[in-house]
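Data availability (excerpt). The following record was deposited with the supplementary files.
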Amino acid sequence: MNNIIEITDLELPELIPYKTTAEVQLLRYFEPEPGIFIAESPKVIRRALVGGYEPISFLVENKYIEGQASDIISSCPDIPVYTAASDVLTQLTGFKLTQGALCVMRRKKLPSAESILENAKTIAILEDIMNQTNVGAIIRSAAALGIDAVLLTPACSDPLYRRSIRVSMGTVFQVPWTYLDCGAPDYVSYLKEKGFCTAAMALRNDTLSVDDERLKHNDKTAIILGTEGEGLKAETIAACDYTVKIPMYNGVDSLNVAAASAVAFWELRKE
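Predicted structure:
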C-alpha cells in the first residue's frame, strides 16, 4: 500500500496534531474554518467515516496495518497512514494506544438548532456540562435509547474533544447535535416556541416522578440536564413546564448526570 509511511522523524509537521494535548488548538487548527479532531480506535474511526467526516491522516501501530485497521486503510487509499512500533507511538503521543489507531479528521460546520429540531420529537438539552466524560456518556445513552438530537448551551464542553468521542464510542457521529445560540434560561422559551414540552431534571420537592403519566403524552419533549454538582440554574427550572426527578432509595440523594440521563431517556423517549 503506497500510503503507508514508516515514522523515522517524530518532528514531522504532519504529526503535530497527534502530539497536541490542547484541544482548543485542534478546534482552531484551520481558523476561521472548522478545525480538526482526533478519533481513537478502529470502531470510532469507522463510525466517523460513515458519518461523513473527512480523514486527513491515520496513525496506526505496525501490527494493526494488516489487522483490525486494514479495512479502514483500504477504504481510504489516498490518505497517509503513519506507522511505527507501539513504543514509538507512545513517545509521539504521550500515551499508549490501547487499540492501535488514531485518525486526524476535519470538523464539519455545525448545523443550526433550527434544522436539527425540524423533525425531532424527543431531545436532550445539556446546560453548561463541562465534564468531557459526562458529555460523551450522555450522547452514547441518547444514541442507544432513541433520543433524536442533543443540543448544548454555549458553556458546554465540546462533544468532539477526544475523551468525549472515546466515551461515546463514536456515537457523537451518529446523533445529531449542535450548540444553542443562547444560554439559560432564554433557550427554554425558544424550545417552547418550537412546540416542545420542557422537562427540567432537578432535585426539588415540587417535582414529578420520571415515570409520571403526565410526561408521556406530549408530542415533543425536551429533557434538560444540568451541570455536575450545581445542577440546572434556578431560572431554567422556573421557566420549564415540569420539574422531574428520579426516585432515590437507601439514602442516595442523586445519580451522576450521565447515569440520570439514561434513566430519563428510557422513560421519556417517544416511540
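Summary of structural features: The first strand starts at residue 4 and ends at 6.
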